[in-house]
Specification:
Length: 273
Amino acid sequence: MSEMAVNTNAAVTAAVSSVQMKMDAVQGFIMHHVSDSHGMMPFPKVSFDLPSFVSLHGLMLIFSAFLLLLSFGLLYKKQQAVPSGFTNLLESFVAFVRNDIAIAYLGPDDGRKMAPLFCTFFFFILTMNLVGLVPGLAAATSNLAVTGTLACITLFFMIFGAMYRTGVLGFFKGFIPHGIPWWVLIVLVPIELLGLFIKAGALAIRLFANMLAGHIVLFNLLGLVVIFGYVALPSVAMALGIYLLEVFIAFLQAYIFTLLSAIFIGQRYHPEH
């Protein structure tokens, strides 16, 4: 009986050790996929190094920019009298961003002037999000440096764009509501000024966290099959559902970032409203 118990314990220990090794391998693959590095691992046990001057997320950013330029430079047919197909799809998104985001929150004049910026935000973020859903590639928007840079562009227009439009004095007067006692302004104005940076930080973290979390959840569900075998096959159906949700999230996060940027910039361009 003691020998049987020893054999059983050894078998259990070996099984636990095997599962632990598989879990470590899966977690290592996931972290390599979602983190920035100078190497690519499109599939388990398949990897290659990138040049020292570009990282994985930097390469995905360049690739996304190339796809965006290809879409509007070659696939977009300007000469069509009545847009159709892919051209009609692009123009529909452009019209939506211009009319329902830029003009809606900055007014007709400023909205038309700022529409190119918001269209760039929307299409660039959307492209990076969708590229990250291609097997073997990565999402540049799951890097805080990328989303932080985009948020800094919004912050630039919130500060210097507003100063250009309303003047330096008008910019600071926008933080002083009418009818507020002076002793309240001592606390309120610094909080409002700090709010500029908090809003930009929220933009960066919201986009970064949503894209990163989605990829981690998706790969963990698929990793269950690697760890537990055929018994975990139902998790593949769940992963497929998460993948379809991620496609929706790719559009949603591009829309939210563009919308909030327009709202934040509009608040500084038109503080009276």
